[in-house]
Task: inverse folding
């Protein structure tokens, strides 16, 4: 297949001081076989229009900062080749379901708050994780997949529930909570369940499954959340059927807070 | 009504109903809604069918088949309405209607199968 | 940043007519653009359409239970009632509706069985078992259950 010499990028532009709403601006960029969307955006920034604003850093699918909506699909700019779009044009918009700060840059403060809420760290009775905890490879295997997240937020962009309900905790954060629950060194599952067995937590998810489809790291947030729901259902049924047995379960670690 | 304590219960009912609906309902509807009316199968005789339904096992089977799938419906449909139509503010009404149907169906099935 | 939601007003026009664009800098961002989600978002992409169809199978489920309740009602009342039920089911509209409902039911079964392995992380010997080992038995059970129901109805009535 022959590669076209140039391709048109229709990039969403938005300046908060000037524009009531975003509009598209077209740029003609050269096509090289090894170029990804990020190369094209950098070409625009360097050669055509220095005002174009977008986030990126590692160029290698690790930092998670180059998520854009490319032809209606959330994708990493550094992992999406120009050549897969034939003769174009390629439409590049900011990630959906986030407020747009400028051009392709979105505001992720709310997500960072959600991330904190799920306590994504090892919770262990003997102190603040300074000890050494042994783990076998098969114990690691239990959660390894869910620990690969790079916080690129493509999953939030793909998840309609995240868009409809801004306080829904959402795929990556819930998957991360699940990752710690499944960690043999962690004892915080009850604490997290108390926060996440909630209509805006695991129960808000209706298993659309798009998060899993778009995730570049195969974290499978949708699967993680369903597994979490099963754990939550078992927990909830236990509490419902024998409320007496559950006393003192929640505040287990209350004593050594601070 | 939709809160931390109830949601796991409703979800459990949803799942159980989903399994029952997935396994049993297609064949039921295929036989009585399509195959018999189109005469792919012979009409079962009324007395034979009645005798079959009188057995306690059939009654339990029918009760489960009428009840759990309705709770599956209630949960799923209420979320479809919230998300599809963006009517979160009508949560309570939607909730009451969906589970109202489920409870009504369950009670009706229980009543019919017990008093026959 | 937790106050982020409140500091982002709904998109108001930045400048009136004939006015110079007024640049106001605030501590953070002067104004975020928050796109609205369309009510018809579920038509936006094929996976979303599939999702909403999957969710709507619940209507077919409720419909099937309604048919069964009618049948039980008729059956437990009298032979005449049951004839009425059979006549109702034989109406072309009814057959059509049941056909559509049946298609949705099958869609429910298939999606349900296919998604089950995602929700169940079964591990044997430290390794997660393949999805087929979880959805496979469900398909087999589906076939078995259908055959048994068919067999009982064919032989006992
Ligand atoms: S779960 Fe996947 S898509 Fe979501 S933020 Fe993490 S890496 Fe990105
Ligand atoms: S630039 Fe770091 S992930 Fe793309």
Result:
């Amino acid at each position: 297949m022959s590669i076209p010499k140039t391709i048109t990028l229709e990039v969403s532009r938005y300046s908060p001081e000037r524009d009531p709403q975003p509009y598209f601006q077209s740029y003609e960029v050269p096509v090289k076989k090894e170029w990804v969307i990020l190369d094209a955006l950098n070409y625009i920034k360097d050669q055509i229009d220095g005002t174009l604003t977008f986030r990126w850093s590692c160029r290698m699918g690790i930092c998670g900062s180059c998520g854009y909506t490319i032809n209606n699909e959330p994708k990493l700019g550094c992992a999406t080749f120009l050549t897969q779009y034939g003769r174009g044009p390629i439409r590049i918009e900011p990630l959906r379901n986030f407020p747009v700060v400028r051009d392709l840059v979105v505001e992720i403060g709310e997500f960072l708050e959600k991330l904190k809420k799920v306590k994504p760290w090892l919770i262990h009775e003997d102190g603040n994780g300074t000890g050494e905890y042994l783990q076998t490879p098969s114990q690691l295997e239990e959660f390894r997949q869910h620990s690969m997240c790079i916080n690129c937020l493509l999953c939030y962009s793909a998840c309609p529930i995240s868009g409809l309900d801004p306080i829904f905790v959402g795929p990556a954060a819930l998957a991360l909570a699940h990752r710690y629950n499944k960690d043999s060194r962690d004892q915080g599952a009850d604490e997290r369940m108390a926060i996440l067995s909630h209509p805006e937590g695991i129960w808000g998810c209706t298993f659309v499954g798009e998060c899993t489809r778009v995730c570049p790291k195969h974290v499978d947030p949708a699967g993680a959340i369903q597994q979490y729901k099963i754990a939550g259902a078992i927990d909830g049924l236990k509490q419902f059927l024998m409320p007496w047995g559950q006393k003192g379960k929640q505040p287990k670690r209350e004593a050594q807070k601070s | 009504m939709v809160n931390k304590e109830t949601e796991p219960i409703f979800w459990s009912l949803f799942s159980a109903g989903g399994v029952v609906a997935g396994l049993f309902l297609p064949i039921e509807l295929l036989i009585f809604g399509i195959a018999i009316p189109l005469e792919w199968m012979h009409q079962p005789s009324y007395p034979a069918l009645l005798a079959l339904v009188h057995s306690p096992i059939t009654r339990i089977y029918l009760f489960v088949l009428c009840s759990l799938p309705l709770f599956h419906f209630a949960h799923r449909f209420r979320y479809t309405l919230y998300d599809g139509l963006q009517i979160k503010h009508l949560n309570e009404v939607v909730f009451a209607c969906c589970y109202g149907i489920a409870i009504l169906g369950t009670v009706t099935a229980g009543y019919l199968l017990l008093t026959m | 940043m937790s106050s982020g939601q409140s500091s982002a007003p709904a998109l108001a026009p930045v400048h009136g007519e004939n006015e110079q664009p007024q640049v106001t800098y605030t501590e953070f961002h002067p104004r975020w653009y928050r796109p609205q989600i369309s009510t018809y978002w579920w038509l936006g992409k094929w996976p979303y359409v599939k999702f909403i169809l999957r969710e709507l199978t619940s209507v077919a489920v409720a419909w099937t239970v309604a048919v069964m309740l009618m049948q039980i009602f008729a059956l437990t009342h009298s032979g005449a009632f049951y004839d009425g039920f059979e006549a109702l089911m034989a109406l072309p509209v009814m057959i059509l509706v049941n056909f559509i409902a049946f298609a949705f039911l099958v869609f429910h079964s298939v999606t349900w069985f296919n998604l089950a392995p995602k929700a169940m992380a079964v591990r044997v010997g430290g390794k997660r078992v393949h999805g087929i080992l979880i959805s496979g038995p469900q398909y087999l059970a589906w076939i078995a259950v259908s055959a048994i129901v068919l067999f009982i109805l064919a032989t006992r009535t």
Remarks:
- The first strand of chain C starts at residue 123 and ends at 124.
